[in-house]
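Q: Structure tokens for this one, please.
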Amino acid sequence: MKYKTIFEPFKIKSVEPIRLTSQRQREHHLHRAHFNPFLLHSSDVMIDFLTDSGTSAMSAAQWSAIMSGDESYAGARSWQRLEAEIHDLTGYPHILPTHQGRAAERILYGYLGGKGKIFISNTHFDTTRANIEFTGATAIDIPMPESAMIAFDHPFKGNMDTEKLESLIQTYGAQNISAVILTVTNNSGGGQPVSMHNAKEVASICKKHKLLFILDCCRIAENSYFIRHREVGFRNKSYRSIAQQMFALADGCIMSAKKDAFANIGGFLALKNKALAEACTNLLIITEGFATYGGLAGRDMDAIAVGLREIFDPDYLHYRITSTTYLGEHLHKKGIPLIMPVGGHAVYIDAQKLYPQIPVNEYPGQALVCELYLRGGIRSVEIGSVMFGKYDKRGKLIPAPKELVRLAIPRRVYTQSHIDYVVEVFDEIIRTKENARGLRITYESELLRHFTAHFEQL
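A: Here is the predicted structure, written as tokens:
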């Protein structure tokens, strides 16, 4: 018999208290944070959906591994265990540990970038784009056309537009394209998966034009789940073997271990090419640490090694995707406009459609993240024109393609009752949506402004 209740495949051995707040208190906290949830104190947040990065609950096996961490500066046993696990998973011979994924991005894309260089992706995430553009290079997104159709149900809306990839290669010349990056799952595209067929097409095009093909693989286990259940020919494959097949198509990968490795910190860069790996190792040693720890404590490396094995557990992945879908489907039934189908790690809300009275230059996504905190103590993140908007030469906003709000669900942290509470808060969002107001930016930094920007309500 198939039961309706989501059964978490774990028991809780340790708890962290949640401090309950009133709406009046939250109004004070929101003003103090300049209407930017990134600037809230975590102790003032009841449900934290800001990110799924580094916010997971580690397992008893991970905590046990931490106690055996070897903190030797060079050649630690912890490094040997992590290196062996990454090599078994990816097949890549050259592995560089880093303190998190964006450090690996800075090393690789900093080395490959520069003025006039082009990077192409299904969708660059914020730190990826920032690290590329910081070098003077250009980051171009080419998601499949269906990704723009928010309500359209397609099994692999995270795919790259391979026809456009071929066109861009002809336009810019292969010699000017530093790398093609396939992000799995496609985070900024709504947490949508990428098919194995699409990865093979991208790999074939890159091989034909002698282009470097990199996987941004921080959620590859979740992506493997979708391939197994949605793509023909994978039903009897294990999730880990599906991931290994995708790794085999690429020339290397970057991973933030703060996502699908359940770790609170860490990441790595893994490459096939020895010369490229040596160049990146030089940068690693200068900025991160020695090549066998890369800014990580031995205990962190051991936790990542265990997490990379645990993430492919079938019971866990079923729970993970089912629980995310549960939240999305309940909001969808209430009439909340979402990216459909629901992705793996998060639910993405179309704030522009929810708040048609708020124009894009008044940031409807930022208005929604403020309302969610004010009404229910829920912290989320805008993925729209605050995060990805730019200005033209006259200072006029060039808006992002979509005005989204992401509810990113930490792994093994919240139970079904927490999710049911979030669903109830949206009743209040719907009831008060005509009263929602836009915002204007009063302070912003040049790069990644959404982290530190200040706002005021209009």
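A few notes: DSSP finds 15 helices and 16 strands in the chain. Residues 60-310 form a domain with the Aspartate Aminotransferase; domain 2 fold (CATH 3.40.640.10).
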